[in-house]
Specification:
It is a single chain. The protein has about 450 residues and is an alpha+beta fold. It has 3 domains: about 280 residues, FAD/NAD(P)-binding domain; about 80 residues, Alpha-Beta Plaits, CATH 3.30.70; about 70 residues, Glutaredoxin (3-Layer(aba) Sandwich), CATH 3.40.30.120. It has 10 helices and 23 strands. Strands 1, 2, 8, 9, 10, 18 and 19 form a 7-stranded mixed sheet that branches. Its EC number is 1.14.13.127.
Length: about 450
């Protein structure tokens, strides 16, 4: 018997496993793959995700492995993250394979090890728990969470619909060495037949991405290195001397979201709950934050310190976040299409982004720092992320969240008396300082 079975050992599943262990829950983490593929669909961590890792005391591991860059963008129009109210005003370039390695090391320290070659094949729910059928046998649990990607077996077995929009374009990707790379570490341009980007992730290898519009490839068809080279030559006019591919892949701009994130004792998180074009690099980051939101709630219910109804707030809070991500990635794709009309639109949009309020709004959107959850407390701070304030005892707010427990921050002066902070770092309630008669009007 275990408390929670997590299907899928990617970033979302690993983060959820960590959150549940910090809450004292027993976790069984399974994955249908035989081992890690070493592939990296995502390539960076945004400010809010770095804050989440800081709240758990592990952010230094990721900072040491990655490279901070001012690389925030909206449809390849640069955003300035440096003025955001955070200690992490940048994107951390770090391949998904490395992110997974670091997360897996952490969850192993917490007592969870991945059961590879273990696919979820069915489940039976009851009032007492859920029997999860896997290729390795039946696992008795209290809950099951599908973190098993866009083609989620858990979502399909639960009969949860996955509506959305079909693909309109195809992108190809290759991690390669380049004999004649662009001068910039991050380089991209729009051309007559599409757009492309070249991103340097190391001293001798690069990620090349080519977007091809009004062409939808069969997502099940194999892809070759020569197909990526041909696409880059057609769009960019050069292949930059690309050779020795580490990995090639293909993806598109289909945008879909699960009709619901919960079915009784079954939950969905990450790509199992939402897929979209990777514009702005929001996918992995959204999934990790799904996990943190669901993790503390499941942990509290399992510990008996919160009612079962708390679990319903997972969809209430996270569904609108992913809905907004789907919307903005669709907008970014539309803003990237080739043609003179889009050129004119981009020129106008570029002028707008140079204005500080617009940059701040879009940077908050892409970085995840502007998220506000519904709150019963009417105070404007309720539901927002708690900033990492320096405290009088030489600690920081985030250091008090390392064990994933709620905290109360008291203020000696100012308009606030105390703020209640949830385990995921969002403000649950606010106690304003009440003016006494001696303070006058």
């Amino acid at each position: 018997m275990t408390d929670v079975v997590i299907a899928g050992a990617g970033p979302t599943g690993l983060m959820l496993a960590a959150e549940l262990r910090l809450a004292g829950a027993e976790v069984t983490l399974v994955d249908r793959l035989a081992e890690r593929s070493g592939e990296s669909r995502a390539g960076g961590l945004h400010p809010r995700t770095l804050e989440v890792l800081d709240q758990r005391g592990v952010v230094d591991r990721f900072l040491a492995a990655g490279r901070p860059v001012q690389a925030g963008h909206f449809s390849a129009l640069r955003l300035d993250f440096s003025e955001l109210d955070t200690r992490y005003g940048f994107t951390l370039l770090l391949m998904q394979a490395e992110i997974e390695r670091l997360l897996e090391e952490w969850v192993a320290e917490l007592g969870v090890h991945v059961r590879w070659s273990t696919a979820v094949t069915g489940f039976r729910q009851s009032g007492e728990g859920i029997d999860v059928e896997t290729s390795g046998g039946t696992i008795h649990a209290r809950y099951l969470v599908g973190c098993d990607g866009g083609r989620s077996a858990v979502r399909k077995l639960a009969g949860i619909g996955f509506p959305g929009t079909d693909a309109t374009m195809t992108a190809v990707l290759a991690d390669v060495e380049l004999d004649d790379p662009p001068a910039e570490w991050i380089f991209g341009e729009r051309r007559e037949h599409g757009d492309f980007a070249v991103i340097g992730f190391g001293p001798d290898w690069y990620r090349v991405v080519v977007d091809q519009y009004d062409f939808v490839a069969d997502r099940n068809a194999p892809i070759s290195f020569e197909e990526v080279r041909a696409a880059l030559l057609r769009v960019a006019g050069t292949d930059y001397g690309m050779r020795d591919p580490r990995w090639v892949s293909r993806f598109n701009d289909a945008a879909r979201q699960a009709e619901r994130y919960r079915d009784g004792r079954v939950f969905l998180a990450g790509d199992a709950a939402h897929i979209h074009f990777p514009a702005g690099g929001q996918g992995l980051n959204t999934g990790v934050q799904d996990a943190v939101n669901l993790g503390w709630k499941l942990g509290a219910v399992l510990a008996g310190t919160a009612p079962e109804s708390l679990l319903d707030t997972y969809q209430t809070e996270r569904y609108p976040v992913a809905e907004r991500v789907l919307r903005n990635t669709m907008a970014q794709t539309a803003l990237s299409r080739p043609g003179p009309h889009t050129d004119a639109l981009r020129a106008e949009f570029a002028e707008l982004i140079r204005q500080e309020p617009v940059n701040r709004a879009l940077a908050g959107l892409i970085s995840g720092l502007d998220i506000r959850y519904p709150a019963t407390d009417p105070h404007p701070l309720a539901g927002r992320r708690m900033p990492d304030l320096d405290l009088d005892d030489s600690t920081r707010v985030f250091s008090l969240l390392h064990q994933a427990k709620s905290i109360e921050v008291k203020f000696a002066e100012g308009e606030l008396e105390a703020v209640g902070v949830r385990p995921d770092g969002y403000v649950g309630w606010v106690s304003p300082r009440v003016a006494g008669p001696h303070q006058g009007g």
